[in-house]
Write a structure and sequence with these properties.
The protein is mainly alpha-helical. The chain starts with a helix and ends with a helix.
């Protein structure tokens, strides 16, 4: 009876963790279907399948190892993806402040570098606080972590106003537009970071 009660739990533990789910269990099944002419896939799908099979052969059925390797590679991909999005962010600033005629693209790039450094340090501290908050009696650090997240918005506002020397409401409006642009850049950032982390596995 105890075994029967634990059956759903055991099935849940045995559930496979796959980065891609393209309809093939492993390389052997894919090759068999390919020989029978039932696996006529395009170039992109074949490349993705090859990566999935290599991950399966490297880590086996150890889901925890796959997740840990993906997480570690994702962390190491962050600096590369930040470098990738930096010129795009600077270009958005260039478009927003083009009419003022006071700054060249290089100035926007320098501002972006300083802003990215602040974000990186702020997120690093937030990550440490998030880890420490799980310790007994340190749960209040979650509030500090939240305030530091809000602090990024305030810092962005003050930095834009001081650097570009524009009025309060103009700065707020441009910060809003910049935030929307940053949201799209974050999506690009996430996709690039995930792709790099999978590629390195």
């Amino acid at each position: 009876m105890d075994s029967l009660k634990r059956l759903p739990e055991l099935k849940k533990k045995k559930k496979e963790f796959t980065i891609f789910n393209l309809g093939y269990k492993d390389r052997q099944e894919y090759n068999s279907l390919k020989k029978l002419g039932k696996a006529d896939d395009g170039l992109v799908k074949r490349i993705i399948l090859e990566k999935q099979f290599r991950i399966q052969e490297k880590y086996g059925d150890d889901n925890e190892k796959i997740k840990d390797a993906l997480y570690e590679n994702l962390l190491h991909s962050i600096p590369q993806t930040l470098f990738f999005t930096l010129p795009l962010f600077a270009f958005v600033l260039h478009l927003l402040y083009m009419r003022s005629g006071k700054h060249y693209y290089v100035s926007h790039a320098i501002f972006t570098i300083h802003f990215y450094i602040f974000i990186y340090l702020d997120l690093l501290v937030m990550f440490v606080l998030g880890k420490l908050s799980s310790i007994k009696y340190l749960g209040w650090l979650n509030t500090v972590e939240f305030l530091m997240g809000i602090g990024i918005i305030y810092y962005a506002y003050r930095a834009l106003r001081n650097f570009y020397d524009e009025g309060r409401w103009k700065t707020v409006l441009k910060l809003f537009i910049l935030s929307i642009a940053l949201l799209f850049l974050s999506i690009i950032f996430a996709l690039v970071a995930f792709s790099l982390s999978v590629y390195k596995m």
